Amino acid sequence: MGDKKPSVKDFLQREATSNQDFSLSVIATDLVAEQETEVRDFIFKKLSRGTVYGGSGNVSRVDVGEETLSCYFYLLRQASRQEADIDQEGHPTYFYTSNNEYVVCLLTDDMNTVELFRPELDAYSEGLLAVLDNEASQADKIRHYLENWYKDAAEYVCRCTKRFKEDTAFIIHTALLDAKLEVVTTDQALKSDLTKFLQVCSLSDLLQHLSDTDSSHGTSGSSEPTLIDLDSSSDSCLQAGDKTTSQPDFVKLVIEGNVHRFENAYKSSFCDEWSNLMLTGDQKSPEFLRQVIEDCKLRTIQDLNNLKRLVRQAESDHYALYRAYTFLRDCGNGAVLLRHIWKDENTVSSLDTQSVLHVLEEFISETNGFTQAQV
Asked: What is the pairing mode between strands 80-86 and 67-77?
């Protein structure tokens, strides 16, 4: 008989029981003794219940002194080793145990911060491993790393918006196209900020999540259109769409001191609108800027679904074809929508759908294409 792989149920049971015998000690904190005791008690109870798993941060409310604060906490495992257990049938079941486990705990009075920036906080928490590996006995350096969590994981959106001002629209458009951005600069901190900003403006993760959710509900056989599914492997579809939309796969940004220039970059009226919302609002608030980003991404997804529905209708309705054209022309984001609809294998698998898209692209090309600025 072969080795038996652990099921999800086995994993969850082991995770729950592994936290029944443990103690918590503080490596670094900026809380006073009374506050630290309250937070430690809160984390201890969470771990004891076996509901805290590695790989994803958690957000909850915690009473600290006279305040009720938002608490982000993340279970961090420094190293793992493979062990085996024997089930009732005599088969070995392999699992992993960690040599050292840590809980990263970050407190703020604004729930929106930890909710909106949870992916960044997850990555920031994982980044602590390098500090723990090298400086496990130096609490000051660990504390310094943790003290910068808000600056590094949230305020980057403020720095990018302030640094590039109206040109932020070029970065947004690059992100929406999932194009590669090469940043040439000696400022590594700014380069890191741009990487995070580009990622947060991209639709890929959100669209994949929605596609997975849609698939899990079995809507592929429904009469309702499914959400757009990004698949980078659909090269033939991508090339077919790019021939007429002329959108870049590669953008270069050169930064020299306070001067920057883009090469092969585009921006649309929608991206201008997006960046203007950020520039005319509270540029010092990461929460405000991130909310604008999420709202504009949601609007783009809604437009994608509207276009997909119109394209399907246009297979048998010429008036729907005209409505699809006017929608692409007037939405201010037509090039991005066409780029992503060509990447959706479920949509373009039909020859009729491909024909509709080609007709749309040809007509747009004959009428001088989309209104875009290029540098």
From this structure: unpaired
pLDDT digits (tens, 9 = 90+) for 242-283: 444 557 789 999 999 999 999 999 999 999 999 999 999 999
Over range 307-328, report the average pLDDT: 92
Q: Residue 79 has which token pair?
A: 């190293």
**Long-range contacts, 52-56 (Cβ 8 Å, 24+):** 52/19, 52/103, 53/15, 55/122, 56/122
- CA 231 vs CA 139, 241, 250, 333, 359: distances in Å: 44, 14, 18, 20, 23
β-pairing, 259-263 vs 250-256, is antiparallel
Segments of 121-280 assigned E as strands: 180-184, 250-256, 259-263, 266-268
Question: How far is Cα 246 from Cα 249, in angstroms, rounded to an integer?
Answer: 10
Which residues lie closer than 8 Å to 340 by C-beta, 6 or more apart?
Answer: 203, 207, 228, 230, 304
- Measure CA of the first residue to CA of the last residue in the chain; give whole Å: 64
Please tell me what DSSP assigns to residue 323.
Answer: H
β pairing state of 101-108 and 266-268: unpaired
